[in-house]
């Protein structure tokens, strides 16, 4: 996996991934940024959310569950002093589907958290990770 980061101006940077996708990042105005794009640490949080959501949908589909939606809301706390690492991250999953089995959703979240989601497992080295979920029945 590769990624190239290029400074644009001010505190705006473009990240080009090895697959050819481009993502902008920017700093806060007090740090010289213009608030045009997410901060790098927000990107890390979003990456962990995307990684685990991908796992949940894939695991539930493979388990023949009728999953129709998956949202993950992440909230985090960071250390007050540099390096301001994440110290606690709460993942709140809202999984939508028809006849979803609670134990299947719980198992998918557990497998993602403990085995498959590289991003959250890596962040778990410095942060306490909390996983909560709701299941919403769909027609």
Give me the secondary-structure topology.
Layout: E1 3-9, E2 12-17, E3 22-25, H1 40-62, E4 66-78, E5 86-98, H2 102-116, H3 118-123, E6 128-137
Parallel strand pairs: 5-6
Antiparallel strand pairs: 1-2, 2-3, 4-5
Overview of the structural elements:
This is OsmC-like protein. InterPro entries: KH_dom-like_a/b (IPR015946), OsmC/Ohr_fam (IPR003718), OsmC/Ohrsf (IPR036102). It comes from Aromatoleum aromaticum (strain DSM 19018 / LMG 30748 / EbN1). By secondary structure, the chain is α+β, with helices and mostly antiparallel strands. The chain has 2 domains: 38 residues, Single Sheet (N-terminal domain of TfIIb), CATH 2.20.25; 98 residues, K homology (KH) domain (GMP Synthetase, Chain A, domain 3). The chain is 32% helix and 38% strand. It is built from 3 helices and 6 strands. A 3-stranded antiparallel sheet has the order 1-2-3, with no helix packed on it. Strands 4-5-6 form a 3-stranded mixed sheet, with helices on one face. Helix 1 crosses helix 2. The longest helix has 23 residues. It is elongated and about 50 Å long. The protein starts with a strand and ends with a strand. The mean pLDDT is 97.
Quick synopsis:
The protein is of the alpha+beta class and 139 residues long.
Fraction of residues in helices? Answer: 25-40%
Give average pLDDT, whole number. 97
Give the full name of the CATH homologous superfamily of the largest domain. K homology (KH) domain
Strand portion: 35-45%
CATH overall fold name of the largest domain:
GMP Synthetase, Chain A, domain 3
Contiguous uncertain segments of 5+ residues: none
The shape is: elongated
Number of H/I helices: 3
- Major sheet characteristics: 3 strands, antiparallel
Arrangement of strands in the largest sheet: 1-2-3
The total tally of domains equals 2
CATH architecture title of the largest domain: 2-Layer Sandwich
Q: What radius of gyration results from the CA coordinates?
A: 17 Å
CATH C-level category of the largest domain: Alpha Beta
Strands, total number? 6
Distance between the termini: 40 Å
Structure class: alpha+beta
Which sequence of SSEs, written as H and E, runs from N to C?
A: EEEHEEHHE
InterPro entries: KH_dom-like_a/b, OsmC/Ohr_fam, OsmC/Ohrsf
Organism: Aromatoleum aromaticum (strain DSM 19018 / LMG 30748 / EbN1) (Azoarcus sp. (strain EbN1))
Protein name: OsmC-like protein
Pfam families: OsmC
